[in-house]
Specification:
Layout lengths: L17 E6 L15 H4 L3 E3 L4 E5 L6 H11 L26 E5 L10 E6 L3 H13 L18 H12 L4 E6 L7 H16 L3 E5 L11 E7 L2 E5 L5 H11 L1 H12 L2
Parallel strand pairs: 3-7, 3-8, 5-6, 6-7
Antiparallel strand pairs: 1-2, 1-4, 8-9
Helix pairs in contact: 4-5, 6-7
């Protein structure tokens, strides 16, 4: 499925290092096997990326994290997260999708490629921070990029904010899988501020999320995972936004409906 972009009127913020992701469909041997049987992958041809932020949204199991992980591996990041110079794996479980993906670089990027990069996934955050500790203990100035403090001496949310505000240097290519995990609504608002600072500093991000707060970031494309593949949507059209709005406006009515469905 070839996706067309909505007209963009925002200023040219972001790094724009990767223009799109393309699937070499002729190299797929078995469309009935995982992950090629997932609709998001089965219908994929080329996915244009925003030069600032691209969001992937969808129900659990829809394939957004699988696609993000494959893109990260194709770009040279460890499957469990980290920067390109991290070399660790607690278990090799990533799919073969990365082997048939092609990254289309932006030909207009005369200044060259990104100077920083990081892949963060919520489900492997703890072992990733453990690996950070192992690396930092051997560094000349331990935790210099982490505010002088081990990530394990912070809460999950504080460690993620330290990554965002201290470790990520800007002019980078950053991939986040459900970064809102363990963050309060107020901290998610703070994350929006830090994301925008990175974008203004020439960074590009691809983010898989369920958060209606993060999805509100204006300089972005949003792709929602459906049975017929990825569909570009506007913020107010996302299921996360619609369900949250409906619940907040009429929580009693929503709960009555949910509880009625459970009654025998």
């Amino acid at each position: 499925m070839q996706l067309e972009l909505f007209p963009c009127v925002e200023p040219p913020l972001g790094g724009g290092f990767v223009a799109s992701v393309r699937l070499h469909r002729e190299r797929v041997e078995d469309w009935g096997s995982y992950p090629f049987s997932i609709p998001v992958v089965r219908h994929l041809e080329e996915l244009p990326l925003h030069r600032a932020v691209t969001f992937l949204v969808g129900e659990n199991g829809s394939g957004k994290s699988t696609l993000l992980e494959a893109l990260a591996v194709r770009l040279g990041f460890p499957a469990e997260g980290g920067s390109r110079n991290y070399h660790f794996a607690t278990k090799d479980t990533h799919s073969r999708l990365s082997e048939v993906l092609a990254v289309v670089r932006d030909g207009m990027q005369a200044a060259g490629r990104e100077s920083d990069g990081f892949f963060l996934r919520a489900e492997s955050f703890y072992p990733l921070m453990t690996q950070v500790e192992a690396y930092e203990r051997e560094a000349p100035h331990p935790y210099g990029e982490w505010g002088g403090k081990s990530p394990h001496e912070r809460s999950h949310g504080e460690a993620f904010l330290a990554l965002l505000t201290l470790r990520l240097r800007g002019r980078g290519l950053y991939l986040f899988d459900e970064p809102e995990a363990a963050l309060s609504a107020q901290r998610q608002l703070a994350v929006l501020t830090h994301l925008h600072a990175l974008v203004k500093n020439g960074s590009q991000m691809v983010i898989a999320t369920h958060s209606p707060i993060l999805l509100a970031y204006p300089h972005a494309l949003i792709y929602e995972c459906h049975e017929d593949g990825l569909q570009q949507v506007r913020y107010e059209e996302t299921e996360a936004c619609r369900l949250t709005r409906e619940f907040m406006l009429r929580p009693e009515r929503m709960m009555e409906r949910l509880f009625a469905e459970e009654d025998p």
